[in-house]
Write a structure and sequence with these properties.
Layout: E1 14-16, E2 19-21, E3 28-33, E4 38-44, H1 48-63, H2 73-89, H3 91-102, H4 106-127, E5 142-150, E6 153-157, H5 163-176, E7 180-184, H6 191-203, E8 210-212, H7 217-226, E9 232-236, H8 239-249, E10 255-259, E11 265-268, H9 274-286, E12 298-302, H10 306-317, H11 338-353, E13 357-360, E14 364-365, E15 374-375, E16 378-381, H12 388-391, E17 398-404, H13 407-415, E18 422-426, H14 430-439, E19 444-447, E20 466-467, H15 474-478, E21 480-488
Parallel strand pairs: 6-7, 6-9, 7-8, 9-10, 11-12, 11-18, 12-17, 16-17, 18-19
Antiparallel strand pairs: 1-2, 3-4, 5-21, 10-20, 13-16, 14-15
Helix pairs in contact: 1-7, 2-4, 2-6, 3-4, 4-5, 9-10
Bound molecules: nicotinamide-adenine-dinucleotide.
Nicotinamide-adenine-dinucleotide (NAD) binds at residues 157-161, 184, 186-187, 216-218, 221-222, 225, 235-238, 241, 244-245, 259-262, 293, 393, 395, 421, 461, 465.
Length: 490
């Protein structure tokens, strides 16, 4: 039985220039609860005309409003802090909205997604007043300095796997640096981004500074990418969409940051604490139902501990049981949509076809009335790095276990991927841990842990996992540009 929700889900409107409005076309789309397959509510569907209105509002707010020039960084910081407070004041309601819209377990949305989103606003609230240029000594009678200025209007496009958190990772640094924004959330999960936009307004962010336009990627997303008055695009999404965005953005030469897909190696050496490694492997692939860009989807295990580790991992994974995401005891909910569930099931079929051994899972799971989009946690052993399930990002709870011989072998295989987002290493040998961390081409490496994040720690990809860094002081470079000023003193 799937529990009824306590939250009243209102229809979604576009949030443009401080107003909550219908789309110019009058079109709407349904957003579905993936745990039940039922329509949750209707949301206004932004088209090119709406994106144009939102961009013009953001442009006017940037060029003529108080936000970018009249307010000090510290003033903006105070507003960002308030947004964090408003998020925390409504943590339970927003978490439930997120769970209904995305299928993420309520314990995660309550303890992780919403608090980390608030934390991101707190972090950039503190940083907002500390963004500055430098004085630079040069030859000749000159006084030289740099100014670190906001980029302008930022188009921000987010995915459906961490809807409010990804919106926070985009909006908080952009606002701290004095930019204005048009946020286009994923059409599968638009509700919490709309709520966040409303909270920005409630906190006192001036009209037009934050606009939220839900709609499809190919129409609303593309309109944002092509719009000549948008200065920067920040996208979190698939590598394929990243390539398309980069091609289109080249027409107007926009500043870009792209956080894309991954196929991260999680490497267990024979000298590792196997209990901890099994826990890390399980969380690495099954957290958020495997719908996580940093999923440790390729588990490399040194041959001599393969059997021992698999025993522990399978025992743990059997306890990961799909359930009602509104149940506080649930750790594993549905996939985000029917389409995503079917994609995952196809990959499972491909794994069997190519000769991998199905150790557990492999099927759609039935929860409640059986209408939700649940997939069993699935583990394949006997996988080779060249099989489709080891090469392509599945974005679901499917683990490919690959044995390896020694350190050189695993570094070669670990790097043998088009992606470079993250990696894990499990060993008690400190030298080996650091060496592997250096040799893997990935934006984040976890040693004897997996899947940690912090607002202060830069996050982003190598290779086809994208470029640019979110979080930390690194994000300031993405949301500012440097101006060099020369003053003649002769
Ligand atoms: P997606 O690429 O399909 O969509 C991402 C966003 O881009 C959505 O808002 C979508 O509407 C929009 N979009 C789609 N086509 C577009 C186009 N032509 N022009 C402009 N915008 C367009 O990705 P998804 O299915 O929402 O999310 C899953 C993907 O995101 C996975 O590949 C995952 O690895 C990646 N991801 C990466 C990170 C990271 O930080 N690196 C984090 C989360 C998810």
């Amino acid at each position: 039985m799937i529990a009824p929700s306590k939250v009243k889900v209102e229809p979604g409107k576009l949030h443009i220039n401080g107003q909550f409005i219908d789309a110019a076309s009058g079109k709407t789309f349904d957003t579905i609860n993936p745990a039940t397959g039922e329509v949750l509510t209707r949301v206004a569907e932004g088209g090119a005309e709406d994106v144009d209105r939102a961009v013009k509002a953001a442009r006017a707010a940037f060029d003529a409003g108080p936000w970018s020039r009249k307010l000090s960084g510290a003033d903006r910081g105070r507003l960002l802090w308030k947004i964090g407070d408003l998020l925390m004041a409504q943590v339970e309601e927003i978490a439930e909205l997120e769970t209904l819209d995305s299928g993420k377990p309520i314990t995660d949305t309550t303890r992780v997604d919403v608090p980390l989103a608030a934390d991101c606003f707190y972090y950039y609230a503190g940083l907002a007043g500390k963004i500055h240029g430098e004085t630079i000594p040069v030859r000749g009678p000159y006084f030289n300095y740099t100014l670190r200025e906001p980029v302008g209007v930022c188009g921000q496009i987010t995915p459906w796997n961490f809807p409010i958190l990804m919106a926070a990772w985009k909006l908080a640094p952009a606002l701290a640096c004095g930019n204005t924004a048009v946020l286009k959330p994923a059409s599968l999960t638009p509700l919490t981004a709309l709520r966040l936009g409303a909270l920005c307004q409630q906190a006192g962010v001036p009209d037009g500074v934050v606009n939220v336009v839900p709609g499809s990627g190919s129409v609303a997303g593309m309109a944002l990418v092509r719009h000549p008055q948008v200065d920067k695009i920040a996208l979190t999404g698939s590598t394929q969409v990243g390539q398309q965005v980069m091609r289109e953005a080249s027409e107007t030469l926009k500043k870009l940051s792209l956080e894309l897909g991954g196929k991260s190696p999680n490497i267990v050496f024979a000298d590792a604490d196997l209990e901890a490694a099994a826990r890390g492997a399980q969380m690495g692939i099954f957290y958020n139902m495997g719908e996580i860009c940093t999923a440790g989807s390729r588990l490399f295990v040194e041959q001599q501990v393969h059997e021992a580790l698999m025993e522990k991992l399978i025992e743990r994974s059997k306890k990961t049981i799909p359930g009602d995401p509104l149940d506080p005891k649930c750790r594993f909910g549905p996939q985000v949509s029917e389409g995503q569930m079917n994609t995952i099931l196809k990959y499972i079929g491909k794994g069997k076809e190519e000769g991998a051994t199905l150790a557990i899972g492999g099927n759609r799971a039935r929860v409640g009335e059986g209408k939700g989009y649940f997939v069993e946690p699935t583990i394949f052993t006997g996988v080779s790095n060249s099989m489709t399930i080891a090469r392509e990002e599945i974005f679901g709870p499917v683990l490919a276990v690959i044995p390896f011989k020694d350190l050189d072998d695993v570094i070669r295989q670990g790097n043998e991927t088009i992606y470079g987002l993250a990696a894990g290493v499990w060993t008690k040998d400190i030298k080996k841990g650091h060496r592997v961390a250096r040799e893997l081409r990935a934006g984040t490496v976890w040693i004897n842990t997996y899947g940690n994040y912090d607002s202060g720690m830069p996050f982003g990809g190598f290779k086809m996992s994208g470029f640019g860094r979110e979080l930390g002081t690194a994000a300031v470079a993405e949301y500012t540009q440097l101006k060099s000023v020369w003053v003649d003193l002769s």
